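Handout, section B. The chain below has 291 residues.
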Amino acid sequence: MSTTPRASRWTAVTPWLFVLLWSSGFIGSKLGVPYAEPFTFLTLRYCIVLAILVPIALVSRAPWPQGKGQMAHVAFAGLLIHALYLSGCVWSLRLGLPAGIVSLIVSLQPLFTAAFAGVTLGERVLPRQWTGLALGFVGTAMVVAHKTGSGLTFLMTVPAILSLIGITAGTLWQKRHCPRFDLRTSTVVQYAASLLITALLAFTTETMRIEWSGQFVFALLWVALVLSIGAISLLNHLIRSGTAVNVASLFYTVPAVTALMAWSIFGETLTGLSLIGMVVAVAGVWMARGR
């Protein structure tokens, strides 16, 4: 009897805890990337995560995905959600695309997910949810509007667009083909597959030189432990327990929360338009998530 209210509170808090942790990823990357090239940074991140999760999975004797087919589905979802999404973000940032524009492009995910959820998952998107998704996009655009500027090229946006495709397709793929799996072992499979890709990119396109500092170590540990383990575990839980549209709608609040974090940590100013956009985006998410 006493566990039911507690479970209900956890269910209500989980989406917003995920948004908070996921948003901090942009802050951690901004702190760490100046000391290491993007793919080198991601490779170190995945190595730390695997060094922690592999012993946990083995000691706890967690069940691994059954059969080559299920293993392939889990690995492919991981490549889309981790390797393609994160690599696309850092690649665009390296090319000079402002972080706010990257956030805006990635925040289009709910519209893409809603458009394809009916076809791939058989989920019905209600008019209220479409309205909420539209409001979320408008609010997000308002939040990052002050970060837009001149000198941007289409080439800078290509990796961010690939990142958008990766996180959208990965969410849909995992929801359809991996509805039930053990988080410990499946996360190991996903990060191992992603490590192969990012390590290859680091070896072939970067010098892999690292400038070790306290700030870099903190940023690396933050994105490895809090993001790659904490936030991803929450994301997998949300994908398993909710609809794809509901999960995707959460990403609309990421630019707003990230902007607030950047203001408090880096002193980046928030305009009145950004503050209004935050309210609009949160209202849109509330509508898109339905009951």
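Note. The mean pLDDT is 80. Compare this with the example in section A.
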